Amino acid sequence: MIKISRRDVLKTAGTIGGALLAPGLPLWSLAEAAPREKAPAGFVNVSSALLGIDAGVLNPAIRPDDISMADVFYGLTVLAGPRSIANLLAAYDVMENQHLRPDQIAQALLVSGNGPNTSLNGAFSRLITLMWLYGTWYGHTEITNIPTSASGIAADYQKDFVISSRAYKSGWIWRVAQTHPMGFSQFSFGSWASAPPSLADYGITLA
Amino acid sequence: MPEYDVIIVGTGHAGAFMAYELGSKGKKVLMLEAGPATPRHREDYMESFYLAGFKSPESPYPPDANNNQPRKTNAPHPTIQQLVFGWDNPEISYLTYTPGSLPFGSTYLKLAGGTGNHWQGTTLRMSKNDFMLRRKYQHGLDWPIAQDELDNHYAKVEAFMGVAGSTAEQLAARDDIPPSYQFPMPPIPLSLSDKYIKARVDGEPLTNEDYFTGQKTVVTKTPQARNSVPYDNRRVCHGNTNCVPICPIQAKYDAAYALGKALATGFVTVKYKTVVDKITVGEDGKISGLHYLTYDDISVPAKSGQTGQGTAAGTVFVLAASAIENARILLNSPWKTGMTVANSSDQVGRNLMDHATYLAWGLMPVNAPAYSYRGPLATSGIESLRDGPFRSTRASWRLELGNEGWNWAKGEPYAIGPDFLYGKNNGGLNNGGTNGSPQVLGNKSLLKALNGYLTRQFRIAFLVEQDAEQSNRVQLSPTETDNLGIPRPLITYNLSDYTRKGFISAKLATTEFMRRVGAQEYTQFDAGNAKQFTYDKQSFNYYGAGHVCGTHVMGSIPHASVVNYHQQSWDHSNLYIVGCGSMPSISSQNPTLTMLAVTSMTVDHILTRV
Amino acid sequence: MVAIARRHVILLLAFGLLAIFRPDVANAGGCWTAPYSCHPGGDINPSTAATYEARYMAYAELAWRDFIALNFPAEITPQGKLEPTPSKEHGLDYHAGDYSAVWQTWPEARDIFLPGAAVPAGFGTGHQAPADCLRKDASGRLELTDKIVLDEYVQADRMGPVIDKQGQYVRYGLSFSKPMFDYITAHQLYSTEGQAAMDTNNPDRDKQTVQFPAGQYSANDNPAMTGSIFVKSSWKILDASDNKSSFYRSQAYVYDQAGGAFADEPTVKEQCSLKPIGLVGFHIVHLTRSAPQWVWATFEHVDNGPWLNDFTSTLKRGYTFFDAAKCPASGGVPSCAFDTVPAAPWNPQRPGQTPTQLVRLAAPGKLALAVNEQYNNRIKTTYPDSVWANYFLVDVQFPTNVKTAGGGQGAAVPNPAYPDGMPATSFLSNSTMETYIPGFFHGEITPSGNPIPPDDQMQTLPSTGAVMPFSSAGPHTVSGGADRTTSSCVSCHSDAAMTTGSSSDFVFSLSRAQSKGKLNLSTSSTQADGGSGARILTRHEASSVVEYVMGTRKPEEPTGK
User: Fold this and answer.
1) What ipTM did this prediction achieve?
2) Which of A3, A146, A183 sits opposite B49 (nearest CB)?
3) What's the predicted TM-score (pTM) here?
């Protein structure tokens, strides 16, 4: 590890916003640790609708270090597009009050005609889904596919970046595939010789 | 009297092994490593890896693999990012090319432990005929040694690294291995998909080509330098499915671990961030020293350059900096008029080889998911079809069964999620809508598609032999340098008809393979990938296997080779040039094991002289 | 209180019910009086609320109760022999903190996994002293020693040693409780043959066939329900310059095996001497029904080193592994290179090695601090001068995602999809034992130049100010790090395997088992070269040693001589 003392950090503070962040990490990654804003229930619920995974499974009550990935992801959407996320949550509220089923809500948010929903609600629905699946913010991918989404995403967040190793290790794409993140396996020696854990054990149902 | 017995350039597989062997015998060794030292702990590499957007083999290691500016990097090396984003742009690509070249598909590292950090760990021995490619099959070059001369050395390095394997399996794979041999550790178990495939694929050869009588297709467990039991104070494999680029728990043997053991002998010193640029020759024609430059900054672009210089002297000198870098140092070192160090044969830099890899992928039947993305990257292969009379016509291949789904083939599982959210089909599976159009899915439909496809994905890879060709070579770029002012490599690279015919065979074998398994093939040519060629009206993509070989081949005739079978320069008796660069032919086996066995012979020779 | 005859007391001891009845023995003290218990807890109370705070505090309290119970003085027989039970008279202030604690009577890893897979001596009968440290009894025979033997100095995963200011290496010891010892001996897991037998029906080695006994909650700390505990202790070799009185102290054979404890340091020559030692760190690992991935707790001495946070206030005290004179604070950070892995070769006998400048990066978690406060106050109240007031819980790690099996006491089993149980405090290290992998902190960058994201950092809140390990008002740390490698206890120990390759239920030591093969009975006191391999010592009368006999020869006869 290139160990920098706090003094070095302060000394190079001017350059940190520039060169060191060149690979595309946003400024918030250097933010002083602060108690994180809790994700509103609506955020967890819309995530659950989009993914088809239970809210209580996505955001369990007891979790490592008491860090909720929902809080982490919500915090990121607020920095990337405070109005966009607020609008999305409001739209979700409306649909919830209309008693739409989760799959109907997902359909409404993600699909338009035969293609993706190109509104900003669609954009942030996709970005949220992808965060849960991959622990990655896909800002660049979003605006490459749907250029109009750029209007709802702050400039610093129009990049693709892995949010944190914690987010990577929590990625749901691996659990949906009944495996583990590449580079992070707690399974035993020889486990690859037998059937993997069931989806139910992962907390996922397909029905 | 020089202070050191042996100076070794490079701390990769060969260098670390040699340093340990020499240090254990009380010989004083100085190692010069172009890159930085191992960080405080592995977690530093792991965090780099986890945070990498592009999880290439280089992703855990410095310098920043996403930021490619070789002119402004102090000790740059090739990366997959360079290959993908600008292989032919010298601003981006460390390797430069002569016009008409194909891109060279493989990369390597410069840091403590070398490319041995991200090797996969496959340790297959080469077979008898592999050493006689020219004599038997009229292609390529012969080795100056026979396979059975290496038996004891193979055993020694397999014990040193810790290889898990089974002699019975190897004999079934038609390997030349003494039947009484016992591997250091029991073999790694087959994966679920290996077993399903084996039950259906074993039998007659996969193609209608000229095989030996009774030759069969047999899927066998792959011997690998990966712990199946606790060994050498390292842990057992836990299936992190990440051998390349990094095993988080060092269950896979790597050269950085050996370097630690070398340092523990108390006789080995390492200077990091020390780049050897020129070899100096004395009046007696022997090497008098290795000139080096030092630097401090590994960032890209570098904020500072050379910090100092020096010359290292010892009784014996060893270049173990990897094939392309060994050639680079030699070509950059003047000797006599019109000749550079160790190059009276004009073979330095020539005969550059790699295993051109043919990738094929598909979906297992719905009722027999592969459940890939588990276990080591590969646990089995088909080795039994590597050799045969067909080698007079087309290059050998070995077939590796992968456990990582479509990760190599299509960058999965990162393609499928965005595909089903954006209504795209980059991964090849989103064509279930009307008239084969892509769909956009959410909620349970999305989960069903993800689970349904990801659990069925699997791939196979054919490592196709490349024969030694004079014209495939490394020279020095006349214009491009790194930040220290050292000329960068200039590559001329092509694939011979011999190798291209190997691909034709691989494609046919794949069709038959898929048929036997009952799998649905999804292999597709990607015209946008620069690593491509056409042969017999068929277009292929090829990949590098990370096996950078040739460039200072060994031989029995001085004017036709660079080193003898001790990897000792014909021209300078106190210079050894070691590594995969010495291999005159590479068959289709991963070269590291054979390279280390040969290097074991080299160490024995050096020990008679210091 | 029921009047109990002495005979009944002995009977009750035999049935382990003493926790329920206080003995009516004159001068009964130590752990036998409230608020202490002589026995570790068995598990957290199953009725603990299913919230993060409640669970965390319950496990932290379990760790403290275990720590205290294990560190009460061991009973000493009239003949002066240590017994593996807590003393009836003495407490945590016994002999000013210089005594043998109960856990020191437990067998060490090196007592269980013997050369030639010899049968270990009976539980609590003493430690195998290497031939180089031998003590002979009156008859001239070799004898098991009461002293622990400390032959390890390289941290787990070969991270490196810690070097104190006098150039001595910190020493580590591993000890196992009786339920673990009994399980190992019953299944002959001290030999590769015994381990192979466990895996007869496990050809791919993917099943876990080893299952140590788990602890169970009992309101009265019934010792029969404690379950498996193993501990790792870290020690400083004390000398004249140390402020001894602040440490828990004991004596040990500090032993250097030729070539290193695991044959990894070829330059090390054999050496042994009896030394006074001071405890600087202590891991307690406890298997309970609620935590099938075990409960992992670690304690440290307050003086090990300053916290990085502390460099904004004046460093007030002397530290064991930190020389402030050579590393003054500058701009709020240490001005020297700290937590640096020592140069190879790691040879404790090599003179002139640079002492480690140890700086602690992570403070205890918020709830660990709260429990520290509670237990520290209790110790200071009941034993005003006890050295144990100088130790604090760094933190505790416990699973958050297990499957609760139905019925009875609701024993949990691992969730196959999350084998590590997704532990809380994800990243936990002891600065004396996992010195070089303390996690990431703010301001660091990876080798590839990425700044560390906040939820990957060990975030100390607030980020400046003195850390007070016994005060919940002081700064605390929220955990983070790349935990697949080490310093998530569970993550690392998940890789523990037997010599067969199958999982060894989180206990790495099982991989030390040797083969029965040929037993080398050389007793090195009779051989000039110190012998190679076995240093088997005898025990006067334990039946386990009779079992050990090879053929008809009793092992107490030295070969040769």
Assistant:
1) 0.95
2) A183
3) 0.91
